[in-house]
Every structure is written in C-alpha cells, then in structure tokens.
Design goal:
The protein has helices spanning about 1-20, 25-50, 60-80, 85-95, 100-145, 150-160, 160-175, 180-190, 195-205, 210-215, 215-245, 250-260, 270-275, 280-305. The protein is mainly α. This is Transporter.
Length: about 300
Amino acid sequence: MANLFLLIICLSLGGILQRTKGFPKDAYLGLNAVIINICLPALTLLYTSEISFKANQLLVILTPYILFISSFIFFRIIAKILHFDRSTTGALTITAGISSISFVGFPIFELLYGKAGVQMGILMSQAGSFVVCGTLGIMTASYYSASEPSAKSIIKSIFTFPPFVAFCVAVCLNIINFHFPSYISEVLQKLGSPFTVLALLSVGLQINVSKANIAQKPLIFGLFFKLLVAPLIIFVLYLILLQQNILLHENTWIGKMCVVGAALGSMNTASIIAINHKLNPPLASLMIGISIPLSLITAMLWHYLLIFF
C-alpha cells in the first residue's frame, strides 16, 4: 500500500512541478542523469553480484526474458502494420516488455503468496527484469535510437551506458563469488536508494495526460500488450507445464505468481532508459503513469482467474 501512495504522490508532484511557473521545463534531464549515472549502477552492482540460481526457480527467472522477446516480436509486427516510427516502436517494446516487479510486484506477491512470494519476487526482479532491462533493454534502446543502426554504434552505445558497465562488473564478481564488505554494500544501497523517488518524479514531470494522448493508438496497443497479452503468454506456458507435469502440484503457485507478475505495469527503469535514448519520451512516461495504476486491477483479476486452474 505504501508503494501505491508513493507512486501517486511522486507522479502528482511531478505533474504539479511541470505546471509551476518558473520551474525548469527540462528538469527531468538532470534527474535522469543522476538516475543513469549514479543510482542504477549502484543498485546493479549491489543486487546482480548477489544473485544465486536454482533449477526449480527457472520459470521465475525466465518469465521476464520471455516477455521481452515477445514484446519485441509483437511490436515489430504492429509497427509494420500501423506504420509506427522507430522511436515509438522502441518505446513500446521496452516499456511494455518489462514489468515493475520490485516496485509494484513485491507488495502484491506478499499479499497473495506471503513471504515465499516476496522471495520469488526478489529473484524475478534481480535475475529477471533487472538483468533484462540492463541488457536486452539497453540493446533495444540503442538499436531504435539510431537513425541508421550499425553494429559499431549499437555496441558503443551499450558498452558506454553506465548501468550496463556496472552489470558486467557485477556478473564477474558473481562468477568469482565475491561479496562486498558490509560498509560497501551500505554505501551502494544509499547511492541507489533515491532511485524510485527520482524516477517517478522524472516520469511525472513528463506525463501529459489529455484525451488526445490517451486515445493514441501506440498507447492503446502498449497497454493492450502489457496488461492482457503478456500475462496471457505466461498463462499458456503455465498450462503447458502443468499438463506435462513439469510444474509439480506443490509449485503451481509459482506459475500463477509468474502470470500475475507478467500482468504488472511497466518498469520505471525501462521508461527512464527509453527517455534517455529519446524514444518517444511522452509515450514512455504515459506507459508508466497509466499501466501501473491499471495493473493493480488487472493483476488481481488474473489472480482470481487462476484459482480455477
């Protein structure tokens, strides 16, 4: 509940500041610079280096990857049919393809599945959505932000992006089983802790909710994929695993949790990355501002539907 209030307050404050006379119109650029260069690298180093993997957690880890690849394919097709430009296609792919697991998911998982749900949620966030955002998300943003994408320009964009550099370092530390001393972890935690507030304020500063904007085809298709198609894909996968007895009875709740996780609103980090790469910033902001509140309803609807399976 606290996260929901924080979401509403930060987005509202951003909207108020956006309309305050004398307040810099491009203030969000400064916030994004702090997020991209300080907060995200700190959190990436802190969490990715601590990830551990187990076989029975495979579906939890793979769900974010499946969703992002599905999003990429879906919007490539839609963009060709409806003639979306590269900026719009990139923004939709990234924001609709990654769920807000840590921000929205944790309280919902705790409510529905208890402590075990939060533990699985942490794994889905750290080994799944966070890694997807820092790798596939950045690669996709680099690809769509280039007017004439080349392998050289994309690779340069990826390997000079601070969160990705931090991710590579963290993976190396994970492989050699290195753990930060407690005081270093505490410093990284404090550097990363402003992330949520700054990211939501930045999004709020850019949201322009009007009848014309909400009625735009790109936003409608983005919400359609995020809130309906994405969880439907994981739901079908869940049924297949259940039918083949791959997902054992005592673990069916994990499959259901993955469906609910897929139905959550867009990840604010994904929006920041899209905005930072100039991929239709108004659309990327709206995807966060609208999909998260709506997903609080749709995620619960999916949960109650899954009771019958």
